[in-house]
């Protein structure tokens, strides 16, 4: 019985030892993905800020706060349509960056459509990929890093300039009790398109462009990223925008600050994001760490138990030999 039980334990040990790498290197890349219907909202604020007041004689003012609301809405219908031609899991995010002044009046409104691979977060090029109505072909990531983020630089897409440049890994830091990777990207002064939707009624981007006035932008972008899920738990920007050749629009100066401020996530959204990421990272760790290493430890334990049972069955006292059969009695002598 001991030898039979040892063989069963050995079979289970081999099974769990084979399941461990299979779960990590085969199942995880196929199971871990962004759901196509995901909806995210984030509120950022610049306190205080410099802002061009379009409704008060185009004056540059110091304001107590500028609010930026960013939404990302999963478009399931569009993702299913692209998946049929792409042959892989695809996520389509319809995004909107909506900026308002302290009085709640719109400063800018820029829509986006971001299409990417649900597993790797690599961009997928398809009809509809755009920023503010302009077709784009993204290179690099945007909004989210890949699962199991590495300690290295990544290519990151800047929606304002429609360009891609490195975002640099700057080290591991503590943030709200989590070990996170800190990344920085600096976009130098770059001419960028005017928003399609202008804050002045009756004025279009095409009309402004005809005057010769241009819009320039620079930013220092900072992210604190959970390396397990690849989700940023905090983000900040030191953001500046200028209108150049502004005298063409009747302004007293040729270069006017349109917006300048240190943009930070609002505290309640930081708390919500951290709690969400902490819950999601457990699912990723189950597939990449907890279960694979647990199965290996279980396989080692089962193997040790199987060898122990085998050793006991071979000991002199471990298994009693069956008693030998008694010899048959000699036949009785034949009487004379």
Question: Level of helix content?
Answer: 25-40%
Strand tally? 13
What does the main sheet amount to?
13 strands, antiparallel
Helical stretch count?
Answer: 4
Q: How confident overall, as mean pLDDT?
A: 90
Strand content: 35-45%
- The string of secondary-structure elements, in order, is HEEEHEEEEEEEHEEEH
Instruction: Report the span from N to C terminus.
Output: 55 Å
**SSE-based structural type:** alpha+beta
Radius of gyration: 33 Å
**Which parts are unreliable, with pLDDT below 50 for 5 consecutive residues or more?**
none
Label the overall shape.
elongated
Keywords:
336 residues, alpha+beta
Please explain how this structure is put together.
This protein has 336 residues and is of the alpha+beta class. The protein is built from four helices and 13 strands. The chain has helices at residues 2-31, 76-86, 205-211, 267-314; strands at 39-53, 59-63, 66-74, 90-100, 106-117, 130-131, 134-135, 154-158, 163-175, 178-192, 214-225, 232-244, 255-265. Strands 1, 2, 3, 4, 5, 6, 7, 8, 9, 10, 11, 12 and 13 form a 13-stranded antiparallel sheet that branches. β9 (163-175) and β10 (178-192) form a beta hairpin. The protein is elongated.
């Amino acid at each position: 019985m001991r030898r039979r039980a040892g063989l069963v334990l050995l079979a289970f040990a081999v099974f769990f030892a084979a399941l461990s790498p299979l779960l990590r290197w085969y199942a995880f890349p196929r199971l871990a993905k962004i759901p196509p219907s995901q909806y995210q909202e984030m509120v950022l604020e610049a306190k205080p800020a410099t802002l061009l007041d379009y409704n008060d004689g185009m004056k540059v003012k110091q304001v107590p706060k500028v609010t930026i609301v960013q939404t990302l809405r999963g478009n399931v219908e569009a993702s299913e349509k692209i998946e049929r031609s792409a042959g892989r899991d695809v996520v389509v995010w319809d995004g909107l960056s909506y900026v308002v002044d302290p009085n709640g009046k719109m400063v800018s409104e820029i829509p986006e459509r971001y299409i990417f691979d649900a597993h790797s977060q690599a961009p997928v090029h398809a009809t509809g990929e755009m920023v503010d109505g302009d077709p784009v072909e993204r290179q690099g990531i945007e909004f989210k890093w890949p699962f199991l983020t590495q300690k290295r630089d990544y290519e990151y897409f800047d929606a304002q300039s429609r360009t891609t440049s490195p975002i640099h890994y700057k080290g591991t830091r503590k943030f709200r009790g989590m070990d996170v990777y800190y990344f920085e990207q600096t976009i130098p002064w770059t001419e960028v398109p005017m928003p399609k939707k202008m804050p002045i009624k009756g004025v279009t981007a095409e009309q402004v462009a005809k005057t010769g006035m241009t819009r320039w932008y620079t930013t220092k972008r900072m992210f604190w990223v959970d390396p397990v899920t690849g989700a940023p738990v905090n983000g900040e920007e030191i953001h500046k925008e200028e209108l150049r050749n502004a005298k063409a629009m009747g302004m007293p100066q040729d270069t006017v600050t349109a917006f300048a401020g240190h943009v930070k996530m609002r505290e309640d959204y930081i708390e919500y994001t951290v709690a969400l990421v902490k819950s999601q990272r457990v699912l990723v760790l189950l597939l990449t760490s907890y279960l694979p290493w647990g199965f290996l430890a279980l396989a080692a334990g089962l193997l040790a138990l199987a060898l122990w049972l085998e050793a006991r069955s071979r000991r002199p006292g471990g298994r009693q030999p069956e008693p030998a059969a008694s010899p048959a009695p000699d036949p009785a002598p034949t009487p004379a």
